[in-house]
Amino acid sequence: MKILVCIKQVPDMASRFKVNGNGVWYDEVDLAFRMNEYDEFAVEQAVQVKEQSGSEPDITVLSIGPDRVIEPIKKALAMGCDRGVHLRDEASYKKDPWQIAFTIAGFCRDKKFDLIFTGMQSQDRGSAQVGVILAELLGIACVTTVVGFAIDNRAITAKRELEGGIKSVVKFSLPALITCQLGLNTPRYPTLPNIMKAKKKELLVFPVADFLQEKEMTGTGSAYTPARKGSGIILEGDVNEMAGRLLGILKDKTAVIK
Amino acid sequence: MKALLICEYREGTLLDSSYELVAFADKLGAERAMVLIGSEAALPRVNGKLYLADVARYGEYNPELHKQIVLEAVKRENPDTIVFVHSSYGWDLAPRVAAALKAGQISEITGINEGKFEVGLCNAKLRRTVVSRTEKTVLTIQAGAFNFTGDAQGSPQVEKLELKDALPALEFAGYEPALKTEVDLSRAEVIVSVGRGVGKKENIPIIAALAKALGGQLGASRPVVDAGWLEHSRQVGITGQTVAPKLYVACGISGAIQHLSGMRNSEFVVAINKDKDAPIGEVADVMVVADVMQFVPALIAMLS
Amino acid sequence: MEVTREIYWNIGRGVALPMYGIFALAAFVFLYGFYRRFAVYRQGKALNRFDSLGTRISFLLKNVFAQMRVLRQPGPGFSHAFFFWSFGILFIGTLLVMAQVDFTQPVLGLAFLKGTFYKMFSLALDVAGFISLLALGVLLVRRFILKPEGLETVGDDYVIHALLFAILVTGFIAEGVRMAATELRTDPALALFSPVGMLIGKLFITMTSENLSSVHKMLWWAHFLMAMSFIAIIPFTKLRHIFITSANYLFVDLAPKGSLATINLEDEGITQFGAAKIADLTWKDIFDADACTSCKRCQDRCPAYATGKPLSPMKIVKQIGDTAFLNPGADLPEAIGADALWACTTCRACQETCPAAVEHVNKIIEMRRNLTLMEGLFPGDEARTAANNIEVNGNPFGFAFAERGKWAVGLDVKIMQQDSDVDVLYFVGCYASFDKRNRDIARSFVKICNAANIRVGILGKEEKCCGEPVRKMGNEYLYQTMAVANIEVIKGYGVKKIVTTCPHCFNTLGRDYRDLGLELTVEHTSTFVAGLISANRLRLKPEPFEFTYHDSCYLGRYRDIISEPRAVLKAAGGQIMEMEQSGYGSFCCGAGGGRILAEEKTGTRINMARVKMAAATHAPLLVSNCPFCLTMIEDGIKTSDLEGKLKALDLTEIVAARIGG
Fold first, then answer.
1. Which residue of B has its CA nearest to A257?
2. Which fold would CATH assign to domain B185-303?
């Protein structure tokens, strides 16, 4: 079985964000980067499938972006993927979801992956499109928002997470693409021997132009810091003083405090 | 401009979010038609054309077939935009339609800014406007971002839709209900929610005490539920409950977009957080910059 | 004629052959027993503890002959010390007899056991024997009647007490019987120099010579055979500690306290990180198990044990021994239990007090290394989250790394990236950088530097967690990642001196970072401030206050910094009300060993136990010297409902509030 996991490197969401010089994206200065949280579940699920199938399946982990994306690729390799693919693109943030999906589809064209895992969405852009479009381009089944996954030979039973805590159960068979929701599994902490083995695993690098031949279908008008809501009062200082002031505001503005 | 609105149907009901699509179309000033894979017993109560496909035949979740139904409606209606709610149904179906039409998709629209669609970036700490470069565009709107204020008294003009060959690519095997509970936050007037900033499970009773002191219910953000500190029925957010209380107090909640969308309709929002720049501040009427475990006891003391 | 004693009286010179024959047998069994044990020690990895022999021998002499560490706990310590010295005197006495009768007399014609020397000799031995019996009696009563909690009594203990008792008693009775047949009749004045023997001899005075002879012979042979049995069973019982524990003083770790092996992560040949099996430990770790006499002093001082965690340092040492001897292929973490391993705060109270020089802490850390590096395990999900946060943002809280220096905005402290011309680099640490309460300490330190005209700089967003908590949790890889990054930045600025307000950073930068190439002066605020005061660069305006002082484990036990902070606080006007457990005997706050990153899930809280001790002094103020301690203490005050009765402050805050004069 051939498995592909698509991961994205995103900035840590605790960071303070500023608009970049181009005015269309966030500035990368002083940002800490990490693997997209949703993708961690994708990597973990792929590795679990491999372990449950006697280690026969082969896992390729792929990411698009500048050289720094090698870090999350290495982490995925340390978690158990077999080889990494880096589609090098200094300005990957400029590509829209369609172009990203198309690029990956180009890489997949002759590879015949049986099972593809992606995160449900990325923490920075959050368009939730790439996985689904990729499946459509490859003509394979796709199920999103997966919080439960079981595979028996080529038959998959997956649970989707819906609003209100309800789950829906779906059955389908390979080849398929799954987009993973938070909580699907518990991503493992890479062990040191695996971190060291990962350094020796195959890492293929291709310029993104090898596979990307499409223009963007959407573009950014401008990026900006949102204006604070008008009545946004900020209280700072001594907790007792703030408590008093807050109660005053609540008495004034709401009917909750008498 | 013409908008094709894709309504959502689940477990025998038309979801209310369908009306949000109408509100959005109205805000755009667009002519609208609707698509529903549902039943005649549960139609949206608005005027206008409605393409109806029988849910008994095509199922509540069957993306391949639903895609084809939508594409058929697109062929007939020739809209400029096809609009979905950014829900577990919408974000699953919309990209399939977009790919088939080779149309650009703009996801989770939160507003319209000078005629451009506004979406969040980095957990809504930033915003950006997105423009389409294709003839047709697929849009998904953020749940709760566009509120329907109309009457819901109309009745649609139904046109039945059927596919010639309908081969399901997957088998929909039913629903697993959410764990049963006594807690119903949707009707609460006051909700005090606890997030990861509370530190540990042992601190939660203090937040619960605040909820009690304010005469409200205890809610939670996703990380708190995922960690097993509180039951899922208390989760506020896109995969939990959507709430609209008079007062919402967010304790130690950073304000991930999924949480915000569940409580953004609250009338008055107070956020307590160590981080002055936490995204919850976007929706907070009052932002108390403090450690939850230091401020809440002080507040409780003052309430009693 | 000079007074003397006929050696071998009633036994005869002919006894030499069978006596030495039996002795040879006992000696053979003795040597064989230890030989078998050496094979088991050798299952462990090699470790060089044979360097600096001079220092080692002196340490051994102090602790074996002066019984220094044993005496630290007065009750049983005195009893053991006196028993040891007295029994030692008896042993030397016997050696002297043997030397004369089998060597000096027949070969050199020299007899020295005569005259005054003999009288003193005889007196000394009698007194020694009496004290031995007394001391043995006290120890026996303690173990078998008083039964202190946690003191395990096993088969060996019965045998050893009985045998020693019997040897001493038969020795005295044989002496008494001999004296009844000799001195008491012929030279009563001499008998006074063997007072115990004399008293016993008086009981036998009416016996006939023949009976005295036979009784004496029986007692002599009984005494001899029991003594030989004693020798033979040494390696097979707790008695082995006579040699193993003594030898353990030779094999002490001469490296600075708390030194850990820095794993060479470039070595691709290493397949096992940390200890999963006996073969992954060193020979010294197995030897320690034999040196341990189960005295339970470590267990008595372990903060985890005291609060109901499944951790007993003594038990772990013994479990390693049991595994090495009985089931060396077994999985250690399974035998010992991960919960017991995670519960350790690395406070070092166990090692500090151990009279057998056992090294408990590093064994635990080695086993944690296996759990973390080989299995990817953590004491809890919250600890894994903290480790991930450290990896991404260089702090366990998950705050953006770019915010690390923001506490200093508006203060007179340089950011090295902008201006690296400083006297001292202040390594702030994660807590003082991000935690609201601990930022007060950072600001106080800057205030002190300003007052002393010390140009101070910080790395700001270039500073990462020193890596200590994750290192102690076993994550050597993440630690080295942090360390290497910090070292590169620090070296880049050509820094000469670092001062830190955190004892963990202090230990790590000053000791551990040396293995990774950083060698410069690192000081903790307490001694730094003491230095400023004594150099008259900082003048304090003392304001009187009563306080009790909490010695941080990583300042007191690890670095012997105990008197300096007290002197500084005194200079600030403080009047100390010491806790019972202070100084080297300080009780941990619970946050060491990486546990600041984890939740306490079993038993009662260590910090609450410590706060209770502080409250018992009735001091209104508890002063500490460490951001972890301050955090734990304030938390403990809150959960113990002592708010308003006890306040917590850091030493820097007190000093900063009293600058002037």
1. B214
2. Rossmann fold (3.40.50)
